[in-house]
Amino acid sequence: MAGAQDIRRRIRSVRNMQQITKAMKMVSAAKLRKAQLKLNAARPYARQLQGVLERLAQAPVDAIHPLLKKRPVQKVVYVLITSDRGLCGGYNANLIRKTSGLIAETQQEVKLVTVGRKGRDFFRRGKIEFLAEYTGLGDDPSYNKAKEIAQEVVRLYEQGEADEVYILYTEFVTAMTQRPSQIKLLPIEQPEGKQGKQYIFEPSAEDILNSLLPKYVETQIFRTILDGKASEQGARMTAMSSATDNAKDMIEKLSLAMNRARQAAITTEISEIVSGAASLE
C-alpha cells in the first residue's frame, strides 16, 4: 500500500490537472458562445440562397450550368472537416468512424479533401489519394478561407477529378449534442420550384445562376465549417467538464486512502510503543 507521503503527492498532481481542465472548460465555453453567434448568423443566409434557387427553378433557363450537370459517377470526393487539435471527446473519432464506413461502402474510386489536422493525419496512413488539405483555420475561420476551399472543389469537379462531392462534418445541435452528418455538395441538386408567383429576373436567370451557384458552394462549405467549430468547442467543453469531475472524484478517493494510511501508521506506532513498554516490564 502506498504511503501517506506518496498519496499526498498524487493528490497534488491531480489537483493541478483539475485546475487545468477547469480553465480549459471555461475557455471552451467562451469560444462556444462566439462560434454559436457566428453560426446563427450564417444559417439564415444559407436559407435565403436556397430560397433563391427555388425561385430560379421556376424560370426557363436555356443553358445548364456546369455545377448542375450530372454525369456517370466513377470518382467520389469527400470533403472531411475535422479539428486541428484534440482533447474534444469523441468529436473527431465519431466523424472519422463515419467517414471510414462510407469509404468502405463506396464502390467508386474515393479521394479526399481534408480540412483539419486530425482527419488528415488519420487517413494519411491509408492508401486514399489526397487532392487537397487545409489546416490552421483557427477558432474563428474566415469566409475567405471557405471561398478558397470552394474554388478548389469547384475546379476539381469541373476538371473531372470528381463526379460527386460530399461534405462530411459535425452538425451542431446543442453544447451536449453534436451529430456527424453528410451533405451532397456537387452536382448541386436544384430544388423543385413550387408553383406560385412568377418572378422577373434582371439581368437574366442565366446570369444570376452563374453568379449564385459558386456562391452557394462557398456558403455551404463556410456553414459546415462553422458547424464543425461550434461542435468542436461544445465537445471540448463537455470533455473538460467530465475530466474536472473525474479529478474531483479521484481526489476524494485519494484523500480517503491517505487518511487510512495515516491511521495505519499511527496504529503501528502505538503497537510498537505498547510492545516496547511491555518488554521493559
From TrEMBL:
Compartments where located: Cell membrane; Membrane
A single BP term in Gene Ontology: proton motive force-driven plasma membrane ATP synthesis
Family the entry assigns: Belongs to the ATPase gamma chain family.
Major subcellular site: membrane
Matching PROSITE patterns: ATPASE_GAMMA
Membrane topology, as annotated: Peripheral membrane protein
Complex formation: F-type ATPases have 2 components, CF(1) - the catalytic core - and CF(0) - the membrane proton channel. CF(1) has five subunits: alpha(3), beta(3), gamma(1), delta(1), epsilon(1). CF(0) has three main subunits: a, b and c.
UniProt cross-references to InterPro entries, sorted A to Z: ATP_synth_F1_ATPase_gsu, ATP_synth_F1_gsu, ATP_synth_F1_gsu_CS
Pfam families the UniProt entry points to: ATP-synt (PF00231)
Keywords annotated in UniProt: ATP synthesis, Cell membrane, CF(1), Hydrogen ion transport, Ion transport, Membrane, Transport
One GO cellular component term noted in the UniProt record for this chain: proton-transporting ATP synthase complex
Gene3D superfamilies recorded: 3.40.1380.10, ATP synthase, gamma subunit, helix hairpin domain
Protein task: Produces ATP from ADP in the presence of a proton gradient across the membrane. The gamma chain is believed to be important in regulating ATPase activity and the flow of protons through the CF(0) complex.
Organism name: Desulfosporosinus metallidurans
Signal peptide location: none
A single GO molecular function term of this UniProt record: ATP binding
Identification of the protein by name: ATP synthase gamma chain
NCBIfam families given in the database record: ATPsyn_F1gamma (TIGR01146)
